[in-house]
Design a protein that fits this description.
This protein has about 240 residues and is an all-alpha fold. Helix content is about 85%, strand content about 0%. The protein has a two-stranded antiparallel sheet with strand order 1-2. Helix 1 runs antiparallel to helix 2, helix 1 runs antiparallel to helix 6 and helix 2 runs antiparallel to helix 3.
Length: about 240
């Protein structure tokens, strides 16, 4: 029971962690938006749109851990990638919100895609997409400035750290789960071996008792046959002597 609970905790740990990180990242993005809204040349109608897109991204981020089909997971991840691109488009050179939201997307993709090749491909695609998004665009007739090379370098350095740490976390979680699985198999094998040993001992006891019973029957049969033969001869000799 204890090992089953340990396996459940190890399995649920990445899910609980990603849900917590997703909530914290969206909360941080909301706080960053409230802090920088006065420094950004954004129309007032974008404020409500930002809140709607941020809430939609949070909803799909909370749905993702419960998507068991691979195609659905990819669809949710790609949809959130498009949402985050739209969210970060008007901010121009300000990368704080994009750093917060794209980091949690990288973590979710690495942890929830089934194998390392898909996780690496997704992480690389997200980083390349972030790079392509940092180009001058015109939003509501307002040209948005591009980040400086130092800001881009800092962004990719931070993203690289997030990717490496997340891969280490996934590797640790999978190794821990494999270790628990191995211990459980060894425990079951020990129980099976002990059960087989007890059955072998029971069989030995039964075989010994059966051998004793067979020996007793053999002796009884030999005694019976010998005594009957002797008595028959005596009776015949007595009858002959009497005649």
């Amino acid at each position: 029971m204890i090992k089953g609970r340990a396996k459940m905790l190890i399995t649920l740990f990445p899910r609980v962690m990603t849900i917590s990180i997703t909530c914290l990242a969206h909360l941080l993005a909301y706080y960053q938006f409230q802090t920088e809204i006065g420094n950004l040349s954004l129309p007032l109608k974008w404020i409500d749109q930002f809140y709607f897109l941020l809430g939609l991204s949070l909803v799909f981020g909370l749905i993702l851990p419960f998507c068991h089909h691979l195609v659905v997971r990819w669809a949710v991840l790609l949809f959130r990638l498009c949402l985050l691109w739209i969210i970060g488009l008007p901010f121009g050179s300000y990368l704080g919100i994009e750093v917060s939201l794209f980091s949690t997307l990288l973590i979710e993709g690495i942890l929830y895609l089934p194998n390392y090749w898909q996780s690496i491909s997704f992480a690389g695609g997200v980083l390349f997409f972030i790079l392509l998004a940092q180009r001058p665009v015109v939003v509501w007739g307002i040209p948005t400035p591009v980040p400086s090379p130092y800001d881009l370098l800092s962004l990719f350095g931070y993203a690289g750290i997030v990717v490496v740490l997340t891969f280490f976390l996934r590797l640790f979680s999978e190794n821990r789960l494999a270790y628990e699985e191995l211990n459980r198999n060894l425990h079951y094998a020990s129980l099976s071996l002990a059960k087989a040993n007890l059955e072998l001992q029971d069989y030995a006891v039964i075989a010994r008792q059966q051998a004793r019973l067979n020996e007793r029957r053999r002796l009884t049969r030999e005694i019976h046959d010998t005594l009957a033969y002797t008595l028959t001869n005596l009776v015949m000799m007595l009858e002959a002597a009497q005649d």
